[in-house]
Structures are given as structure tokens and as C-alpha cells.
Sequence to fold (362 residues):
Amino acid sequence: MDPKEKYKLRKLIHELKEKKGRHTELVSVYIPKGFDINSVISQLIDEQGTATNIKSKTTRKNVIDALERIIQHLRLFKQTPENGLAVFCGNVSEREGIQDLQLWSVEPFEPISVKIYRCDQTFVTEPLEDLVIPKDVYGLIAIDNKEATIATLKGDRYNIIKKLTSGYRGKHRAGGQSQRRFERIVREQSHEFKVRVGEHATSIFLENLRDLKGIIIGGPAGTKDDFVEGDYLHHELKKRIIAVQDITYTDESGIRELIDKSKDILSNVQMVRQKTLMQRFMKELVSDGNIAYADDIEKALNAGAIETLLLSENLDDEVIDRLYESAKATGANVEILPDSFEEGFQLWNTFGGKAALLRFKI
Fold:
């Protein structure tokens, strides 16, 4: 998937989701690959006739006008585009009684398989979201005797699903308890906590088993090994364990540590790839190596020196388009980073959203 196409579609989806209609007057139309576009036009003409029955004069006008805009737009096409077409139109004015009719049209980079006509207070974006959400999912579990965090990793984002605590008493026993009894209670607490973690992991991961690429488990040596080797995870999930790592923390920072410790295994995951590139950039920066950033990017592009260009998705579209095309013309790789993880945030806030690894120093 071209990173620029994915970035633009994600940005469009975000824009569409922000739009709200005052009434059910935002129209979404999806035409699947291979479907006759003229049949859709005929359907929308029929819907215009139906819309005349809407009681509210303002809503009726907005719906009929939106349908007319879509019909006129579809007539620009001789046939449905190769991967289908999605069109959105409606009155998105924030002021009552003032019409602001806007239209968006998308020819997706992957085939659309659904046919949709819907008139609602929001646009239907789920079929487009399915195109940009990574299919492969990695499960992450950070666990010790006191707490556990369960998360997923998809593309350039990790998501904390569940945090659990055990009430573990540590090394201090209550007065009057024998050492043996205290140790038995601690073992029981530890066992019960691992059972709970295993149950939550099963409910989170098992229903998405088809897309689950692997599970990585981390924690202090004893606890995580007991969890992996014991009968705590569903047998289908145990088959998906691809790595077990020693980590220090088991909260959200532990999840980040687990991702960093597993970067060789996760090298094809977008977030890990981008983190690795930014970490390489930082090492080169410290040693005054082959890098450029901020305003020096233009000079590096003109010299054809860029090996990999790193751009923040917070940059203006025009800037991303120009730098992306210039870099591709010289055979450079391009990554567009969100600021949802530390290195992406650092790219935007410290280096002005532009950094590069160079083929040679300039």
C-alpha cells in the first residue's frame, strides 16, 4: 500500500467523521467494483422522488440537492472505476437555515465490495476504514505478580485493551501467619491472578484468531515463564506465541518496552519499522552522521542524497505531496509517521516534521 494514499484516505475518513448533519441529510453512496453506475444513478433519481415526502422543508431541500449533486457527479463517469467508487454529499453547515453543500468522491486503492445508499446524520465511513486498518494483529501481554496489561498492535498504533491488578502482598506477611502458610497464600494469589489474565486474553484474542499474527509475552523471568508454561492460555492462543521477553515494567510503558524488545520479530509492522528508522536517525544525529532534517531536507533532495525520507502526517498536504514526489523521483523510500508514538511525536515537535537518512553526507 502506497503510504501517501493511505495517509490521504485516513485524513479524508477523519474529515468525514467530523461532519454532522442537523437532520438525516448526509448522503453516502458506495458502488462496488464491476457494478453498473447507471443503475445507481437511476436509483438515486428514484430516491429524489421519495425525498419529496420529507415533512421538513429545509431537510427535504438539502436531501434533494445532495442527491442531485451526486447524480451529476456520477454522470462524469462512463463506467464504474476499477476498484469501485464512494461518494459523500450533504449540508454540513453549522448554522441553521444556511446551506453549505459539500461533496467528496473517492476511487479507492483496493476494491470496494459493498453497495450502500444511506441518508443519515453522519456519513458511512466503515467500508473505507476497513481499507486502511491493518489486517494483521499482534497480541501483547505484559505480566508480573502485581499487574498485567493486555494490548494489541496494528500497523502504526498499539491499543491498551485491559489493565489488571492482583492485590499481591509481596514479601510481608500479616502478623501471626506462619511462613509456610503465607507462601501458600501468595502462590494461590499468583495462580488466581494468572487465571484471570488468561481468561481476559482468551476473550480478547480468540474471537479474532484469524487475523492474529502472533502473541508476545513479557515480564520478570519467573512470572512470565510460569504464565507461558502453565495452563493459563487457551491452547489455540498458546500456538500463536512467537516470543517471550524479559521486561522491567508491566504497565503501558511495559507494552512499549515489549514492542522495542521484539523489533526484530515485528520488523514488518509499520510502527516498529518507523520507530527503528527514527532510532537510527537519532544515532546518526549524535555521531554527526549521514542525516538531514528541517530546512536541510530541500538541499538533500536536490542533491539526490536521500535514502529514506521521514515525514510527519501533521504537515500540510501540499508539503507532503511535494516532498513525497520529489523523494520518489530520486528513488528514495518515504515513510509518513503519525505522532501517536514517541518517535513520531519527536519527529514533529523536535525536527519540524521532516527528517532523512542519507546515502552520503552533504
Notes: The mean pLDDT is 93. Residues 58 and 178 are 79 Å apart (CA to CA). The domain at 271-358 is CATH 3.30.1330.30 (60s Ribosomal Protein L30; Chain: A;).
